[in-house]
Amino acid sequence: MPTKSARKTVLVVPLDWGLGHATRDIPIIHELLNAGCNVVIAAEGKHAALLSQEFPQLTILPLPGYRIQYAQKGWFFGPKIIQQIPQIIKSIKYEQQWLQQVVKEHQIDAVISDNRFGLYHRDIPTVIISHQLLIKTPFGGIIETLLQKINYSYIRKYGACWIPDYAGSNNLSGVLGHPKTLPPNTKYLGCLSRFENKPDVPKKYDLLVLISGPEPQRSNLEKMVLDQVAALPISALIVSGKPGTPETRQVTDRIQQVNHLNAKELNEAMLGADMVLSRSGYTTLMDLVKLNKKAILVPTPGQSEQEYLGKFLMKKGFFFNVNQSDFRLGKALEDIKTFPFKSFEHEEDMEQYKQVVRDFATSL
């Protein structure tokens, strides 16, 4: 039997819902490594590819995701998700059984689960990360109340719940991360971004387009942008959000498209762009405020969380929001010229998460 190392081993597992959960776990993994922990990751597919690229030295265990399928049309998004609830419950039960075995085989000392519900354990510390304590749906009211009760029933199985946002009124998640009643043992992490703000980065692009999220809507937005951008007198970089398939092409002499950029490259691209166009995925929003960037948000159709965040943050003046059904790139670029953008003033708190992670590592 192998000798137990003095270094504590932490298992980190992101949800397979777009790439945001994987990317926002990158700074947490770095901080765990800085604190002297061994880190093991569990993921599959493009999430495993992305994390393997960022951390080639770490072990990545294969673990099936929830593998949610999404509707082609936005108004079918909610019913399509509800139809798959039995499959999600089955996946939660599977990952709970999987965890019991993996803790023994890999001598895991703690688990950090990014919004996966079945990775709690009675014998070791476990944390769940979530900014969606209230889960928005197209149906509202009773359905959201019921989902919140189910959500809290799982969250309470964990030793702690970390919310990637700020506790005060100047926050990013609104009612999602600030419901009337919080689960027990909750901590706000502050902004959770892998990026670093750097002064005096020269401008390279008028527009940086970040295509992300689930299919088929990822491809739908990509096609809309490509159909419209070539006719505009701007320089642009389009990042298609397809890790594991490196490819670059010159759309025009002013417009380049790449499938994927690693964290350093994307950090530089965002700093070098006058304006960003992206989904209103929560991790992207945290990246934008970390770098103090202006952005046009195009929520994934039917995804109630993104639609809520887009409207909420436009009302606050942080970002400009437009529905995909109304999206015209040229018009959006004209509209933002008179939009009164405000800066998200939390610069002094941008590394708040580090202390939370260090305290957790020290407690093991």
Automatic annotation (TrEMBL):
Q: Which PANTHER family match?
A: GLYCOSYLTRANSFERASE, UDP-N-ACETYLGLUCOSAMINE--N-ACETYLMURAMYL-(PENTAPEPTIDE) PYROPHOSPHORYL-UNDECAPRENOL N-ACETYLGLUCOSAMINE TRANSFERASE 1
Residues in Glycosyl transferase family 28 C-terminal domain copies: 263-348
Q: Which keywords describe this protein according to UniProt?
A: Transferase
Question: Which InterPro entries does its entry note?
Answer: Glyco_trans_28_C
Official protein name in the record: Glycosyl transferase family 28
> Signal sequence span per UniProt?
none
SUPFAM superfamilies linked: UDP-Glycosyltransferase/glycogen phosphorylase
Asked whether the UniProt record includes Transferase among its keywords, one would answer yes
Is Transferase found in the keyword set?
yes
Where does the source fall among the domains of life?
Bacteria
Provide a Gene Ontology MF annotation, just one: hexosyltransferase activity
